[in-house]
Amino acid sequence: MAGPSPLTTAPLPDGVSLRPLEEQRVGPARVTEIYRHEWPVEVVPVQWNLVNTVANTLRGVHVHPSHWDYLFVVSGAMLIGLHDMRPRSPTYRTSAQRWLRAESPCSIAVPPGVAHGFCFPSAATYFYSVSEYWNPSDEFGCRWDDPELGLSWPTSNPLLSPRDAAAYGYADLVRDVGGRLDHIAAAS
Which of 37, 104, 134, 172 is deepest in the core (most CB within 10 A)? Predict the structure, then answer.
């Protein structure tokens, strides 16, 4: 069996925070603390969303110039792909991927300017929050399989939303985002 992909062992883009979440047994229940305001992440959630997805779904790749995303998997597994688009970041244009699995709970915080996509080989449920309410001027995306992203997905024909299916290439994303990411310094 081959070893882990270089993308799953590559350092995360600067400012991305991956945090193992501890489970505690309380009688017959398991309790997992999913968010604490004092954790060193700059996400202050203003909205939480619950997503149920079917097998072979891929969401993204999206980037937000203004808001943070914070998420964790409740059931199933997700492969998250990350690509740093912040010209002032020390990890500019680097990519990484990580598996998030419900049986090993952890959260991930994605700062503005880090493009991200989610792949679900099987049905899954996850929560995510955002640091600002949805605003179409903060939503950009590109094709999930554009080679410029440097991401390797475990599917060649995923189920996509209409928006993601119609997305253009990475060069178009860079053009559309324009200078909106130039001011974003490293997030850590």
Answer: 172
Check if 170 is active-site: no
User: Two tokens at 3?
Assistant: 């070893």
Beta bridge partners of 30: 25
Q: What is the pLDDT of residue 188?
A: 39
Measure the CA angle with vertex 126, ends 124 and 127; round to 5°: 165
**118: helix, strand or coil:** strand
Residue 35 appears among annotated catalytic residues: no
Q: What is the reported pLDDT for 27?
A: 83
The one catalytic residue among 35, 62, 70, 170: 62
Q: Where are the beta strands (DSSP E) in the chain?
A: 17-20, 23-26, 29-32, 47-53, 57-63, 69-75, 77-84, 95-101, 106-110, 114-120, 124-130, 140-141
Of 35, 126, 128, 170, catalytic:
128
Render pLDDT for 128-186 as a digit per residue (tens, 0 to 9): 999 999 888 889 999 999 999 999 999 999 999 999 999 999 999 999 988 888 877 64
Q: Residue 93 burial (CB < 10 Å; 0-12/13-18/19+)? A: middle
Q: Which amino acid is at 36?
A: R
